[in-house]
Amino acid sequence: xxxxxxxxxxxxxxxxxxxxxxxxxxxxxxxxxxxxxxxxxxxxxxxxxxxxxxxxxxxxxxxxxxxxxxxxxxxxxxxxxxxxxxxxxxxxxxxxxxxxxxxxxxxxxxxxxxxxxxxxxxxxxxxxxxxxxxxxxxxxxxxxxxxxxxxxxxxxxxxxxxxxxxxxxxxxxxxxxxxxxxxxxxxxxxxxxxxxxxxxxxxxxxxxxxxxxxxxxxxxxxxxxxxxxxxxxxxxxxxxxxxxxxxxxxxxxxxxxxxxxxxxxxxxxxxxxxxxxxxx
Length: 280
Prior knowledge:
This protein is mainly alpha-helical. The protein has 12 helices and no strands. The longest helix has 35 residues, at 119-153.
């Protein structure tokens, strides 16, 4: 091989890294995170998460100073729930409202398509990007509270109990963040605000209201898992020290996985409907 040929091979374009089919590139996910953070409601939800986290950290420090270490695990769990159903809902719903429709109208979807991003990669990036933004508030706030509570515990036995509760709370916050992102995109990503909130109530609220009746239609072991909020609560309680029941957590995890797959299908259907609407 001549020196010129070798130099040409060295100076030539580097081969692109091939990702598994369906997985988006990091740049696509980064764009999705940027788009999800734009709405004002998302910034308000993030600010609310900061306030909740500061209050929880202050409560943990106060309890540690008083020596009330037994209450520290509860502080972490309560903070995790408050962040998920307060800030998490604000951020998820704010970031998802007409997000898919805006992407089409602003040319973002066409730009990504021109750069070789498939529909599946786009949807994964959009859902994962929104889940990351939600998780920055919920998981981040839970972690900050967990660290403060563990430090405040002082004694090893109290710190161990707090660490266990912290692990459960962080895992529950991460799963809740992903599910909230999927629910929000399925309900609000392409519909009008009014229509989206009707679907949102149907997905998230109505099953919980009907739970006293629908729970009688399934085996007793699955009675608490007939709604998303119920399944999320069961997953966390099954792993908590006071109500440890690993079988319940496994059933809840299976239920949540099925729900997540169903929500992914709904998001794909919404995008297909939106593209069909634009083609007319």
